[in-house]
Amino acid sequence: MKNKFFGHDFINCNDWSKKELVTAIDVALKLKKKFYLKQPTQYLLHQTLFLLFFFASTRTRTSFEAAMDHLGGNPHDLTVETLQINHGDTSKEIGKILSSYGQGIAIRHCDWKIGNKYINEVANNSNKPVFNMQCDIYHPFQAMADLMTIFEKKGKKLKGKKIVMSWAYAKSYSKPISVPQSFLLLLSLFGADLVLTHPQEFKLMPKIINEIKQNTKTYGGTFEITDNMEEVFDNADVVYPKSWGPLVTTPDQKEGKKIISQYKDWICDEKKMKLTKKDAIYMHCLPADRGVEVTDEVIDGHQSVVYQQAENRLHVQKAILALTMGKDISF
Ligand code: CP
Questions:
Q1: Ligand 1 proximity of 142 Cβ (cutoff 6 Å)
Q2: CA 34 to CA 219: how far, in whole Å?
Q3: Strand, helix or coil for residue 209
Q4: What value, to the nearest 5°, has the Cα angle with vertex 95 and ends 90 and 96?
Q5: Residues paired with 304 in a beta bridge
Q6: 106-115 pLDDT, tens per residue?
Q7: Which residues lie below 8 Å from residue 186, measured CB to CB, with a gap of 6+?
Q8: Which residues are bridge partners to 48 per DSSP?
Q9: By C-alpha distance, which of 62, 74, 67 is closest to 35?
Q10: Of 20, 123, 295, 302, which sees the most CB atoms within 10 A?
Q11: Full-prediction pTM beyond 0.85?
């Protein structure tokens, strides 16, 4: 079968149509079943995927490596320190050279105002698909794994479901804003009632907010922005409380930490979870700052789906890699 996804990049979910995204999730669900049944899935036999990390990773690194193993291909885990990037290799050279050696390039580059630009420059110079493993603006594979998890737990019809993305306090560092942005952008295609809540300094990029509003008009549902964590948990079906940096307000890490420290009561605890529906789910992309961002009781509790989300990274990535790197495949 001719595969119409062949050769496509995956840099932002919303570059794909809603129909294509749903197909990718359907393929991921099939591959998940095959994984449990121990059936072969060697759709990318002897193909090479380069994984280039400018930033640390546990889940993304290991799930992409495992994905290529399961698909019969080879992942090559590269870091900036082991390449000549700091000695002059440009994004153009990385795109042209790595695409001449393999069948795909995946990049994580989260530096504010740099990461997304870099990934697009590589893509413009690569004749093979380029994948965004997280940048300063988007984390598309995380959003797809999150959507797959919501479909599994709540079904595919999200109309009338209250889905909350909330800022939460964390002391480790100013985390990227790519997770809340990609999550809301993707969910806004499915007609849910979306709520975003954060202290005023933690605004998302205006361009992203406008796109979410536009999607809500096109696909139905609602989108509300508030600054009260406790209030928005009321009657929610899905809550996704996580920290991100006040990067739109200030990219300065020191100043950012000072702002973050004012909001220590923005923690997801059992008291807040009790306000949600009985069958509500708690989501987090991980890593979480336990004890400050979320209590152990919640993240280890019966409403938490964090391990399902992490596992679904594998299945979603296998689906998108197979669809974009496999020329003539059917599932
Ligand atoms: N959720 C996520 O992307 O995890 P890593 O940063 O460990 O890859």
A1: yes
A2: 32
A3: helix
A4: 100
A5: 282
A6: 999 999 999 9
A7: 13, 14, 21, 140, 143, 144, 146, 147
A8: 74
A9: 67
A10: 123
A11: yes
